[in-house]
Amino acid sequence: MTTVLPNVTLIAAVGRNGIIGDGLTMPWHISEDLKFFKRTTMGHPMVMGRRTFDSMGALPGRRSVVVTRQADWSAPGVEVAHSLPDALALVADDEQVFVVGGGEIYRQAMAYAARLLVTEVDQSPEGSVTFPPIDAADWAETAREERSGFAWVTYERRG
Ligand SMILES: NC(=O)c1ccc[n+]([C@@H]2O[C@H](COP(=O)([O-])OP(=O)(O)OC[C@H]3O[C@@H](n4cnc5c(N)ncnc54)[C@H](OP(=O)(O)O)[C@@H]3O)[C@@H](O)[C@H]2O)c1
């Protein structure tokens, strides 16, 4: 059984149709939300899938832990893990850790997360990569800030 880790937050921008990307890039460019992402994650470790790393690289001021199945994969300035539990173990001593995508990694990390920070984007873009469903039986919406074209929504795990 997966143990929920109180220090793990998923942060994602999600379309009305659940889409978060096309496998290469994000479907939108919302500078206000990128600033929110930066100020929220700054100083905290980020865990991401190798494909998301390929799309955004290592971001300054934050440890990047990249999850890959490739035994010989490396990139400057990042730590490598070969499973999600191994990635979360690397950052277990940090009081706040952000899982920053993409779809494959969100899907696996949701079971560990205590909190979700979801930017609900008021668009239904084309794409192939989705955020996993947020089951209201497991997650309570605890905050919502409406902006123009999107909303910042916080979910906390029930119980
Ligand atoms: N809207 C948002 O907030 C947001 C945020 C982040 C990303 N995105 C978008 O999401 C898309 C990328 O998502 P994605 O689902 O295609 O890929 P991803 O989750 O970023 O990365 C998938 C890769 O992670 C590695 N991986 C996954 N599970 C693993 C495991 N259990 N053990 C070891 N390695 C594992 C594999 O890397 P290897 O192939 O190297 O083995 C796999 O190919 C892009 O379009 C990106 O722009 C959107």
TrEMBL record:
Signal peptide: none annotated. One of its GO terms (biological process) is one-carbon metabolic process. Pfam families: DHFR_1. Pathway: Cofactor biosynthesis; tetrahydrofolate biosynthesis; 5,6,7,8-tetrahydrofolate from 7,8-dihydrofolate: step 1/1. Gene3D superfamilies: Dihydrofolate Reductase, subunit A. Its EC number is 1.5.1.3. PROSITE patterns: DHFR_2 (PS51330). It comes from the Bacteria. The keyword NADP applies. InterPro entries: DHFR, DHFR-like_dom_sf, DHFR_dom. It catalyses: (6S)-5,6,7,8-tetrahydrofolate + NADP(+) = 7,8-dihydrofolate + NADPH + H(+). Residues 7-159 form the DHFR domain. One of its GO terms (cellular component) is cytosol. Key enzyme in folate metabolism. Catalyzes an essential reaction for de novo glycine and purine synthesis, and for DNA precursor synthesis. Belongs to the dihydrofolate reductase family. PANTHER family: DIHYDROFOLATE REDUCTASE (PTHR48069:SF3). This is Dihydrofolate reductase. It comes from Terrabacter aerolatus. The gene is folA.
